[in-house]
Write a structure and sequence with these properties.
Elements lengths: L1 E2 L7 E3 L2 E2 L12 H11 L12 E2 L15 E4 L12 H12 L5 E6 L2 H9 L7 E6 L7 H7 L5 E6 L16 E5 L11 H14 L2 E6 L12 H4 L19
Parallel strand pairs: 2-5, 5-6, 6-7, 7-8, 8-9, 9-10
Antiparallel strand pairs: 1-2, 3-4
Helix pairs in contact: 3-4
């Protein structure tokens, strides 16, 4: 378990680390940079840097934790990467099932593989399932997610790279939006954010604005902490309610 500065979760758990680029949102991957840094610091878990690595030794980690937490699963990778065997994912899901006091937030860019996995398996009641939707080409992932019987279905529109246009948010409980950070960060425009926010409100989906990132609301590039997280002068960071399972 690791403490995290990610605003929408409490802890991270990484039984899988490393990944390969899948879509435009991967271009400036924060996890890849961090993994290489951790390898340079001599951390054994990241001896392979960002090469996909399974960590069976960490599967039981949440069983040792006290209290109740929101836990981001595989913040340093993608649980549904094509090279993660389904039987290993089964073991991850067993740990989730065996720790019902926690809520596990699973986010993927491989929506089709997640859908395939849960075609023959039940989603643990304390697993929140999410997909990344960074541009219009990735909107198909929403349809894959909508078909899954999860207590919370959520979107992460981070980094938001363009206007997403019209969204079908039926069955989506939570929408996170954020701008990209780093030297090579791409800008995010306020009107793109407000478009997603309005549609989330219309659908009664909880809306969470995470940050502006390296490019500010005014279109000026500066430190992300200076740009902050105010949207139209206020912090908008709503969390979802868990739905009753069918």
């Amino acid at each position: 378990m690791a403490e995290t500065k990610i605003e929408w979760t409490d802890k991270t758990w990484n039984p899988v680390t490393g990944c390969t680029k899948k879509s435009e949102g991967c271009a400036n991957c924060y996890a890849e940079v961090m993994a290489r840094r951790l390898k340079g610091m001599g951390q054994l878990k990241y001896r392979n840097a960002f090469q996909l690595t399974l960590h069976p030794e960490d599967l039981d980690e949440p069983l040792k934790w006290r209290g109740s937490h929101n836990i981001f699963v595989c913040s340093m990778g993608d649980l549904f990467h094509e090279n993660v065997p389904f039987d290993f994912i089964d073991r991850v899901m067993k740990t989730i099932h065996d720790t019902p006091q926690n809520r596990y937030q699973i986010l993927t860019k491989r929506a089709e593989r997640m859908q395939e996995y849960f075609t023959t398996r039940e989603v643990p009641i304390n697993a929140w399932l999410g997909v990344t939707v960074e541009d219009q080409r990735s909107k198909f992932r929403i349809d894959c997610l909508r078909n899954l019987n999860a207590s919370v279905r959520f979107l992460s529109c981070e980094p938001l790279l363009e206007d997403l246009g019209e969204l079908n948010l039926q069955g989506i409980d939570w929408v996170i939006v954020g701008g990209e950070s780093g030297v090579k960060a791409r800008p995010m425009r306020e009107e793109w954010v407000l478009n997603v926010k309005q549609q989330s409100n219309d659908n009664k989906s909880a809306f969470f604005f995470k940050q502006w990132g390296t490019w500010g609301q005014d279109g000026i590039k500066r430190n992300k902490h200076v740009n902050g997280k105010l949207l139209q002068g206020e912090i908008v960071q709503n969390m979802p309610e868990e739905r009753k399972r069918i």
